[in-house]
Q: What sequence folds into this?
């Protein structure tokens, strides 16, 4: 395996599948099955999931809601998704540890670097919900923070697109895919890999990002094995 310890970042929207809201049981099973494949090969896995399939703090703020209140609602949405994925992973026989930026007993323990690393070393899949525990920060930033804390080798950003393109490939058929990008190139070309705060953290800590299509079964294993099926962003 090319990577020993990974932080998998999943969007909440990806859990919707073909639905317009909520959690698709089919997508949940597919993701859990793919995660099981890499865990069985000895890879240590941490996961951060967004909450956009349930609630977005920014959308709430745009509608007149207090931003801080909306962001906390979004954090709780990430915990709902985290609990759903935890249940599916355990149904498939994996051991898990659910941690959170928000301490919510008896659902989960508060995130700490030691707890996350210890659980990974014991072979547990560590799911980290609750964002960073603070408003005004996205789950992109939270996933970067958690990856740095847990000393992950890389952030694997699972999307519905097979990498980073010169433009949105779903809107522009002439868009060209990048295989490799530097942080500086991605910034100068204003490519939306992650938000600026997350991106700056990755660059400062020399933490690479790999963007790939998580919706194709088996792709997670291919990335961990070192197959070039997406886009690597690094120094």
A:
């Amino acid at each position: 395996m090319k990577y020993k310890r990974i932080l998998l970042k999943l969007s909440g929207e990806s859990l919707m599948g073909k639905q317009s809201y909520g959690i698709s049981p089919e997508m949940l099973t597919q993701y859990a099955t793919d995660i099981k494949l890499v865990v069985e090969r000895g890879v240590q896995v941490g996961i951060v999931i967004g909450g956009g399939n349930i609630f977005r703090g920014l959308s709430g703020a745009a509608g007149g809601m207090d931003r801080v209140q909306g962001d906390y609602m979004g954090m709780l949405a990430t915990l709902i998704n985290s609990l759903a994925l935890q249940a599916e992973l355990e149904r498939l026989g994996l051991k898990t540890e659910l941690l959170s930026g928000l301490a919510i007993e008896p659902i989960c323990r508060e995130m700490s670097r030691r707890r996350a690393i210890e659980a990974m070393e014991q072979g547990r899949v560590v799911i980290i919900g609750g964002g960073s525990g603070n408003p005004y920060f996205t789950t992109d930033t939270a996933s970067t923070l958690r990856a740095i804390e847990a000393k992950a080798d890389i952030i694997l950003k699972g999307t519905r697109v097979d990498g980073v393109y010169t433009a949105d490939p779903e809107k522009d058929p002439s868009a060209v895919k990048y295989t490799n990008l530097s942080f500086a190139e991605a910034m100068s070309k204003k490519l939306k890999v992650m938000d600026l705060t997350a991106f700056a953290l990755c660059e400062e800590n020399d933490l690479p990002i790999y963007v790939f299509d998580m919706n194709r079964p088996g792709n997670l294993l291919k990335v961990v094995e070192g197959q070039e099926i997406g886009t690597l962003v690094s120094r």
Remarks:
- Residues 5-234 form a domain with the Carbamate kinase fold (CATH 3.40.1160.10).
- The chain has one domain: 5-234.
- The radius of gyration is 17 Å.
